[in-house]
Amino acid sequence: MSSEVWLVVGLGNPGPEYAGHRHNIGYMVNDELASRMGGSFKSHKTGRADVVEGRLGMPGNPGPRVVLVRPRSYMNTMGGAVLAVAKFYGVEADHVIAVHDELDIDFGTLRLKNGGGDNGHNGLKSIRSSFGTGDFFRVRAGIGRPPGRQDVADFVLQNYSTVEKKELPMQIVDAADAIECLITEGLEKAQSRFNS
Questions:
Q1: Which residues are known binding-site members for tRNA?
Q2: Which of 9, 24, 101, 194 is the most buried (most CB within 10 A)?
């Protein structure tokens, strides 16, 4: 295992038709991190994901190596792609950070944790199944519950509301900051700063 490389997996569905959906917050956060690293996503040798390699940290004090991963498979089958990229870089589950939408947390709120179940999230379920463990980090970006009797699947596969879109850039920046803090300072500090 290489403790020098972190895999940050942005959960989402590939393709422009999904780009603005609540389910794609992981992709959006990874786009922010890629911008900070001065890189753009390129096809990985496995052919199963797009990646950006670089370092996160202060100028003049670069942090550990980080690989941002955007799986090319859909949410419910992405685990295989994530595992393939992890094996390529020699990364174990304890150096994987999954960034995903979370129904049980209000919109605009973040929670970081290590391990746990998948809470019905197909992306987490797929990663957990492929790695054979749920012992990876999660950065959970709250999207809240659907209004009224709206179906959960319909809700997550919709664009953010007009009101949410105004606050979304701040949630993305906060999530990216939280990931940097988690990688450079550890889970406890990141939780105390970002778990709202």
A1: 18, 74, 76, 122
A2: 9
